[in-house]
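Subject: Sanity check before I submit

Could someone independently write out the structure tokens for this chain? I want to compare against mine line by line before I put it in a report. The sequence has 245 residues.
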Amino acid sequence: MAGFSAFARVASEVRRDVVAARDRDPASSGVSTAEIIATWPGIHALLAYRVAHAMHVSGVPLLPRLISMLARMVSGIEIHPAAIIGRGLFIDHGSGVVVGETAEVGDNVTLYQGVTLGGTGFQTGKRHPTVQDNVTIGSGAKLLGPITIGHGAKVGANSVVITDVPPNSTVVGNPGHPVRVDGRRPEGPDVDWIHLPDPIAEAIQALSGRIATLERMVAELSDEPQPVAEVRPLRTVRGPNPAGG
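---
Independent answer below. Compare away.
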């Protein structure tokens, strides 16, 4: 009876995973459920994880890790059987995704390729991130240590996050830091990766403006005119690609 209950739970969770893939992946338009199950690597990895996790919780030795290893070989996604993953996780493409042993992932989370939920050393106990519900994590982002990513947060591509992230915030950079809190439409995977704030560029721009102001002050105080540096914003150059593309 316990085995049937575990099987029913796994089947229900996988069904939610398939629905999440259909809802959040534009490539699933017009694709049958059978094709998604057969060809989506994120679904393969989650199916293997659901089975391996059920066995791990039941105390089955060795087999959960073998299933996890085989899933990594097939899908390129590594999820430790002991990790705790909620309903409706969507892993887009998925190659290079790593979810560590003590990681916890909430409901309706979206991970893009190359995401790592990893540790920072050889400590024992809780050493991987906790990702709350409705979080979206961009390609190549590294979340390291026993940190908490708050409900509805978004992590920009290639960010390295080593501290807690407030709910409903957007995090970018290395190290990652919040650049927008309680923004418009904080939940869901529809991140506008193109127009995320760039705090480094904004800081450089502020410093450049300050230098220009100081140079003007020096020129006014000096007996001889001093050249004042011109701060020019970067602009898109039109014309042929110098790389030949």
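---
OP: Matches mine. For the report I'm noting this point. The mean pLDDT is 83.
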